[in-house]
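User: My instructor asked us to take a sequence, write out its structure as tokens, and then describe one feature of it. I'm not sure where to start. Here is the sequence I was given:
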Amino acid sequence: MQYQDILVHIDDGEAMPGRLTVAVELAERFGAHLTGVYVDPGLALPTLIDVPISPNLVEALEDEHRQRCERAEQQFRKALDASDVSNEWRLARGELASTLSRHARYTDLVILGQEGAEDQKMVIGGLPDSVVLTCGRPALMVPYVGVRSPPGKRVIVAWNGSREAARAVNDALPFLVAADKVDVMCVNADHGEEDDADLPGADLCLHLARHGVKAEAQVLVANDLEIGDLLLSRAADRSADFIVMGAYGHARWREVVLGGVTRQLLNQMTVPVLMSH
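Assistant: Let's start with the prediction itself. The structure tokens for your sequence are:
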């Protein structure tokens, strides 16, 4: 398994350049085609009852809107100028989350950014939340503050024996195979494992070994609301730069519901997190 197509969400936020840097580095590492997608939801004009909108105001808003799209494209192309990565730019129109999810389904990996406290919430429940639960592809979340070095050298796998966790491990294999160290953190594994393995996670480590991944298992026990803090603490202790975990929750209509651990990691992540649902 290898990533041949990577998609990165492009916007005009302050955190986007850091996310784009990660995307370009990963495309170079895996020899993948990189697609930058900017979703244009259309111009939102102010609506005031019985108050006419000046044509000059409309023209000014349209010009500002067009310039934002153009600046985003320029940033994408500038980031690729010094690289030989195969790439393309897409300006997609439609509702943000559903449009991004639709484009992501034709790639191997979608790269999203963690939402900052000052970001305008364009999607109910949050953009990363919605996309990871609806795109059907692994999603790599890049922290708002960016990364200090290319991610994936020291990896933590959050394992509880669930379907979502198994999906995430499989989707992350290109990272795991290339990693220098992989720690399997068996979080409350007795709640998900139904076999009699001597050590929870031993079967997963054996499976990974067949892919050439040297992984070590460790048992962690925590209450649901403590798991996220525990994983981030272990990541700091072990100088991990990457976390792999299943995304728990479901999406119905425009409401997105995530499990406590998934929500906690998305809000407090300090390193990139690869999630699958």
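For the description part of your assignment, you could build on this observation: The chain is about 40% helix and 25% strand. Try explaining in your own words what that tells you about the chain.
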